[in-house]
Design brief:
elongated, three-stranded antiparallel β-sheet, alpha+beta, 350 residues, 15 helices, single chain
């Protein structure tokens, strides 16, 4: 006796857009299990949702919601940018963002394993695939929940292609309230400047070593061409991160600076006015990795005389510290296979 009825067949058809008889056969093969029936259709290449399952979803949008001490960011991928711009997709994004926010779902895995509107999220999403007509993936998500001394904010760019949520721990609720709009500015900076981590302290030592070696080789290769052209060569850095600038390194740098000043005949009585600036330049020249990838060490886009860390310290009076941020950009890390359209058509005609 079948473990399904006409309502199940109808539901599977709505989820996958497969034919009625195909849905009946799928449920028969799956002994009435809806998830297994969807998988069976996918394996057989039947139905809109099943056929879309093998496609690469690398387009899409980022959604952000911030309210009080809580913020959520979600990336939903589609196959084409065109679909990501339509109203049904935007409605889906808004629904999923609010669902994650309201239920404190910490990541994409939690969202995909959740129940929404009384049904498994996978079934809900399959229905959206059938309705919208493309493969859809809730790929990444993150949640920030703070207390009264936490400042939280976020930003999503106007094209919905990247977004940021960010938090800071503060000395008091009053400081947290004052820092909330400042975090909005820094979230906007992060959206534009693409930092990958908060601080140089987050870097793995081997990563820094490999990056140092690679950058030195690249600059030396470039300098060979500059020499050939008779142009000014670029400075080859000794280091690229503050994590490499130990007390010994800094002591040697200061000694080298003093020796240089002496060789130039600069009077010792004015050295204390010159050395701090030269030390600052040494640090700047030898922390290029931090400046490129670390949020707190990047030059602040709204005032490039300061780093983001310096700007926030100034605004907070040292009474708050940025502790976490999450930046998502649509399609990061997804490898898109180039389709050979002619070969695909030829294969279908065999």
């Amino acid at each position: 006796m079948a473990n399904f009825g006409p309502k199940d067949i109808k539901k599977l058809r709505e989820m996958t857009d497969a034919g009625m008889m195909d849905c009946k056969k799928a449920l028969t093969e799956a002994d009435g299990d809806m998830d297994k029936a969807v998988e069976w259709l996918r394996d057989q290449g039947m139905g809109a949702a099943a056929k879309k399952a093998g496609k690469t979803a690398a387009e899409g949008s980022i959604g952000v919601k911030v309210d009080g001490k809580k913020a959520v960011i979600v990336e939903i991928n589609s196959q084409t940018d065109f679909v990501a711009q339509n109203d049904k997709f935007k409605e889906l994004l808004s629904t999923v963002v609010n669902h994650a926010f309201d239920n404190n779902l910490a990541d994409a895995e939690a969202i995909n394993a959740s129940t929404i509107n009384g049904e498994p999220f996978a079934e809900y999403l399959s229905l959206q695939v059938a309705t919208i007509g493309e493969k859809l993936v809730v790929r990444r998500s993150s949640l920030i929940v703070g207390d009264e001394t936490t400042a939280v904010n976020g930003y999503v760019h106007s094209n919905s292609q990247n977004g940021v949520i960010i938090e800071a721990k503060c000395e008091s609720a009053e400081v947290a309230e004052a820092m909330t709009p400042v975090l909005k500015e820094i979230a906007m900076h992060a959206a534009a400047m693409s930092p990958t981590t908060l601080s140089y302290k987050d870097f793995d030592a081997q990563y820094v070593a490999d990056e140092t070696k690679g950058r030195i080789v690249a600059i030396e290769t470039e300098n060979e061409e500059l020499r050939r052209l008779g142009k000014t060569e670029k400075n080859v850095p000794q280091y690229i991160s503050m994590s490499q600038l130990t007390d010994e390194v800094m002591a040697k740098a200061e000694t080298d600076i003093k020796e240089k000043l002496a060789s130039e005949g600069k009077p010792e009585k004015i050295w204390d006015k010159i050395i701090p600036g030269m030390i600052a330049r040494f640090i700047s020249d030898n922390t290029t990795l931090d400046q490129e990838q670390c949020l707190l060490d990047q030059k602040f886009v709204m005032d490039d005389s300061k780093t983001v860390g310096e700007y926030f310290a100034e605004k907070s009076g040292g009474k708050a510290e940025i502790t976490n941020f999450v930046r998502l950009e649509v399609g990061e890390g997804i490898e898109v296979e180039e389709e050979d359209f002619a070969a695909e058509v030829a294969a279908q005609m065999k």
